[in-house]
Automatic annotation (TrEMBL):
The lineage of its organism: Bacteria, Pseudomonadati, Bacteroidota, Flavobacteriia, Flavobacteriales. InterPro entries: His_Pase_superF_clade-1, His_PPase_superfam. Gene3D superfamilies: Phosphoglycerate mutase-like (3.40.50.1240). Pfam families: His_Phos_1. Signal peptide: none annotated. This is Phosphoglycerate mutase.
Length: 173
């Protein structure tokens, strides 16, 4: 299953990165790819805990995300400052020998973020409400709604090629 997902992801990356030879406008060849995921399954045993860790299932999903993204040479890895998001990002960060950069979804400046990540492959881990908001902000659309609380399997792919933006939602539940 993971190999099939990696193949689909590789195909998406290749189709996003290559332009038709018949294109009539000049390009600079700058490609920015973003991989947005919600944190994996969190421990819900204590509903009053504001910062739970991942469950065993969540840790397994974090490793699966890392395997799915194994064909992507990540340049940057971002996470909100919560155990569950950091633990979700960690396997992919380790695999790519990258530090996890912390971002605050309430104060992030999307234009500054886009400038900093221009031309890079970037993983962003967040929450059911912040990931769709982030994707909508950088795609300048309102396609994506809040993720259901029981859904930890969405992968939002966003590519910006010479200023042209495309996005796709893949579901792995």
């Amino acid at each position: 299953m993971t190999q099939k997902i990696a193949l689909i992801l590789s195909f998406f990356i290749l189709t996003c990165c290559f332009e038709s030879k018949n294109s009539s406008h000049s390009t600079t060849g700058i490609v920015s790819n973003y991989y947005f995921i919600r944190h994996a399954e969190k421990d819900r045993s204590n509903p009053s805990e504001p910062n739970p860790h991942l469950t065993k299932k969540g840790l397994d999903r974090a490793n699966t995300w890392s395997a799915i993204l194994s064909q992507v040479p990540l340049d940057l890895v971002y996470s909100t400052n919560y155990h569950r998001t950091i633990e979700t990002a960690k396997p992919a960060a380790i695999k790519n020998n990258k530090e996890i950069s912390i971002y605050d979804p309430n104060t992030i400046d999307y234009d500054t973020f886009l400038k900093h990540t221009n031309g890079k492959n970037t993983l962003i881990v967040g929450h059911s409400n912040t990931i769709p908001k982030f994707v909508n902000a950088i795609t300048k659309n309102t396609y994506y709604e809040t993720i259901k609380d029981t859904n930890n399997g969405n992968l939002y792919l966003v590519s910006i090629i010479d200023g042209r933006i495309s996005s796709q939602l893949l579901k792995f539940n």
